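Same chain as my last thread, 485 residues:
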Amino acid sequence: MAKTVLVVDDDPTQRRLIQAVLDREGYAVVHAESGGEAIDRLTKGGGADVVLLDLVMPGLSGLETLAEIRTAGVAVPVIVLTANGGIETVVKAMQAGAQDFFVKPVGPERLLIGVRNALQLTQLSAEIGRLKKHVSGRTSFDDIVGDSPPMRMVKALGVRAAKSGIPVLITGESGVGKEVIARALHGASDRAGKPFVAVNCGALPANLVESILFGHEKGAFTGAVDKHAGKFMEANGGTLFLDEIGELPLDMQVKLLRALQEGEVDPVGSKRAVKVDVRIVSATNRDPAQQVKEGAFREDLFYRLNVFPIEAPALRERREDIPALVEHFIARFNVEEGKRVAGCAVETMALLQGYDWPGNVRQLENSIYRALVLADSPLLQPHDFPAISGVAMPLTSGAAISHDRAETPQSQDSGEAQPDSPVRIIDARGHLRTLEEIERDLIQHAIEVYSGHMSEIARRLGIGRSTLYRKVREQGLEEQLKEAG
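reply #2:
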């Protein structure tokens, strides 16, 4: 999803010039002719990711507009535009809450760097906030990405369950985010800020399950050189998340049931039980009721854990959440990898939303990670997801030239003129062709080379997407575009 830049300036020429620069980089640009119009958009709907604000405007000045925006609680980064770059003006703008300033007329490179830095600062602040919540155990359901009907149901159930200590069993396919829901349950409860301990029961060595869960005394068995508290005691006062509970051996299920019923654990080698105060949240990607029928899971433990069931939906059941998830992952990996990817091209987002994602959110996350690391344009393209799109990354012009030279070395020394492009500039009579004819052939060639991916074509031709679409219509190339797509 392309980032939105709000340009607030009473001069239409300035707005058009700024839009031309931002369009080429894949940003969505919206306009406001006055401070009041900008305030209405930011506070009553629409919003923006970055604001470019002129300081000198009729009615509300830029500084007054900025003060109103901050008073309304809008934290969007603001870059001020001024014809007067004096120190006093800059200081006032920064004191009012601006992140940066441009002296008009601003060069394209300076404009793009400023917008990218503002977005990166926003992403960095959001990631720091997310990590602080994660580490302190205060992640809430408001932090879960997704507003589809299935996710709204999950959040509503989770908020209710969090208000009590009731055992919760989260079911769903692998990769749907069951641990994320468990952390939100903990963060929304009165145990927020206390320990949250996650245990993957399927990854526990069979001979050490009891020791890992309940702890052991020094010398309790060979290799027990120190006393070990165990996961239950580590989570004392907080929440214990038992992931893949269906993988727990039957003999350990008996001991787990007793720990849950009595509120105490028996460390290996200890002569007496230890009281623990733990909220249990469990999860499984299997059907626990079916496991009970097959004798692989104790019925009494199932009823003990399945007091409040929550089913996490598969990603294919909530496709409308994919744009928000993609934006979330791009922002996170931008910070982690020091990248400046602005979002996804329109056709890329359509591709991602149309895919079934058998690995669910985890697969989407890893796919975005790979694409972002390898991306060479501001917007992720279909060829950045070759396993999904089937589209290979196009050769760069330099690679194509090298390839051509390797194929025909004799052309370097030949006296014959070699065509530098499939687009002819000379007609059959030796005269220059019209610009309109050359332009049509060039766009048609670009459509073929880049398989109809309009964002990539626009970037390579150095024009905005809206301009490209207009030229395609004017030149009658819609059919070629459909065939290439």
